[in-house]
Amino acid sequence: MQIRRYKHFASVVGLVLGLLCAVEAAKVNKHKPWIETTYHGIVTENDDKVLLDPPLIALDKDAPLRYAGEICGFRIHGQNVPFEAVVLDKSTGEGVIRAKDKLDCELQKEHTFTIQAYDCGEGPDGANMKKSHKATVHIQVNDINEYSPVFKEKSYKATVIEGKKYDSILKVEAVDADCSFQFSQICSYEIVTPDVPFTVDKDGFIKNTEKLNYSKERMYKLTVTAYDCGKNRASEDVLVKINIKPTCKPGWQGIKGPTLSVTLKRHQELFVCGTLKGKSFYSIPLERD
Q1: What is the pLDDT of residues 179-230, one digit of tens each?
Q2: CATH architecture for segment(s) 28-142
Q3: What secondary structure does DSSP assign to 201-222, as a single string?
Q4: May I ask the CATH class of domain 144-245?
C-alpha cells in the first residue's frame, strides 16, 4: 500500500517537474541585454557624430536566436536630451549616439543622461521584450573657433609728455566669446599702422620705443588688432590716439603766478603749463596776437 502511494506521489512530482520544464522551454526570451555601466563621449559643436568610449554595443545571451537574441533599440532617459541612440546592426548589437540638434558649446559644454538597450522580444510584435540596466553617458562638447576677438572699447586715447620713454602708456583689451580656453584667450596684439614709434605686448600694453618730440608730431593715430589663440583676427580693429604734450619749462614772461609758466615754442604758438595743487596741467595751443 505504501509502495503504491509512493509511486503515485513520484508520478505527480514528475508530472509537475515536466510541466515546469516545458514552460521554461517555451520561454524563448530568457535573458536581458547587457551594456557597459558608463560611457564617455566627445562631439564637436555644429556636428552630430559622437565619439564614444567604449563603443556602444549591447550583448544578449539569447543570441543567435532571432528576435530574442537581437537588439531592437536603445532608449535615452533624461530631460531635454539633445541626443538619440540608433541601432546599426541588430544581430551584433552595435549602435551609435548622435546629436538630434545643433550643439552650442557656448550654451552647454557637457551633457549627462542614461541609456538602456532592449531586445526584440519573442517575435515581430516585440512581445516579452526585455531591457538592460541603465548606463550613464557623459558627453563633452568640443569648441570650434567660430568667434573673433572684440575690443572692449570703440577707441582708446592717452596723453604723454614729449622727451620721455614710458613703460606703459595705455592698455587695449579684447575678449572672445568662444567657450574653450584655447579659442577664448587672446594670444597677441599687433599695431597695424606702419612706421610708428610704438609697440604693443601680448597683454595689450602699448609703450613708445623712442622719445617723442612734440615739434615733430603732436598726435599719433594707431590701428591695433588682436588675435585669439586659434589665430582668428579681431572682427574690427581699434583706433588708438596718443596726444603729445610739450615739456613744461619756464619761458616767456607775462603771466605771473607761483606755479604757472608760459613757454613759447616754435611756429609762434603759445602754451600755458604749470602745476596746481601738485598736479600738472596744460592748455591747448594759443595763437599769439
Answers
A1: 999 999 999 999 999 999 999 999 999 999 999 999 999 999 999 999 999 9
A2: Sandwich (2.60)
A3: -TT-EEEESS---TTT-SEEEE
A4: mainly beta
